[in-house]
Amino acid sequence: MQRVSCGCFWDRSQSVYTAENISGILQALVEREQWGPAITRARLVRAAGEDGARVIGRALYDCVQM
């Protein structure tokens, strides 16, 4: 699993988080190694909606530390 820059990730995805969905989003992100990309994406869609999951996925992609 590649490391993600936390500052970069937060800057690019903070607009998605609400009091109602933050727990589900963080749970999906913490368990992403266990479940793999397809299930993680489905869990993010359930927690944050399609647009929110897209923002989070893009932030993960953009903020991978090389």
Automatic annotation (TrEMBL):
Organism the protein comes from: Insolitispirillum peregrinum
Protein name according to UniProt: Uncharacterized protein
